[in-house]
Amino acid sequence: MSPPHRPRRRRPRPAALPALLLACAAALASCGYGSRADPVPAAARAPAGAAGTRLSADSVTLGYFPNLTHATALVGVREGLIGRELAGTTLKTTTFNAGPAEIEALNAGSIDIGFIGPSPAVNGYVKSGGRGLRIVSGSASGGVRLVVNPAKIKSPDDLKGKRIATPQLGNTQDVALLDWIAARGWKVDAASGKGDVSVVRTNNTITPDAYRSGSIDGAWVPEPTASKLVAEGAAVLLDESDLWPGREFVITNVVVSQKFLREHPDVVEAVLRGTVKTNEWINTDPDRAKASANAALRTLTGKALEPEVIDRAWPSVRVTDDPLPATLRAQSAHAVAAGLLEAPDLTGIYDLGPLNRVLGSLHKPAVTDPDDQGR
Question: N or C: which end of the chain has fewer CB within 10 A?
Fold first, then answer.
């Protein structure tokens, strides 16, 4: 269940501030596994005036997953790299296990900004008629693998007739697996998962147990679930990065509700300044960042990852400010081909102006807004 909406007191804005599934949207809306509110470390609560003029909102709530593909949020919150940019605005956080629940919370105003995969972002945008959210930044690329039982599956051809898990119907990994199956000439009914390969939608938190029990033969999953399965004896059959030009594809973006973006653009820019600085910190000191992310997972889930798991998983995730829009559009096309999505109009899904202002202020190159091309 998404957390209840709590109206927050807003300060008047200074005068200087500027005024995937359509066919199965109902099914997606019921696929969320809930969320929980989490305390933010004291280091993340910046004193008033820490970053200059006070901002226009008393608080901002971030939503994200306790996954390594959300490393920007894990590290940025824990290390105070996001909070210290907020100049006295209180940083609140909520974690989720599924994209539809996070989109629901964003639409309800329970969170303001979220870290989320491309398929839920597209579905949320389309379902709202283009009025619900904007993608304002990238966050991560990669970090997804197909892992299998090596006693049963030794080559891609051996997947025929096997049971392969994905996190949920129509999520980013589910779409990727369906597209990969179709490229091999095999047939699967997308809605039921039945066909030449049985696609078994399974919550990532129980996928290792399902593998251990033999109820699945493998899984197309993000990190750290993939490396948890390897620790159980599974083998990596495919790294999804190998299927993409330059081995880059978006796995996590930063989205914001359009209402919050309109009313508090200064807060959105402050958060993005924190995510950009977090990504730079992660890339500069990956070992320390890995330890920080694991400590954050311990706080959020009650258990840190074993060294063999995080050491295998961490290098496969690359944090990035670039939302890699061409890959999101390709992923949408894969969902359309699978029959899970009617061809969407994604014009306007990006607003990269706030990010590019931040990048410019930090003397970093701008990223491209696809909607501006050719204008």
Answer: C
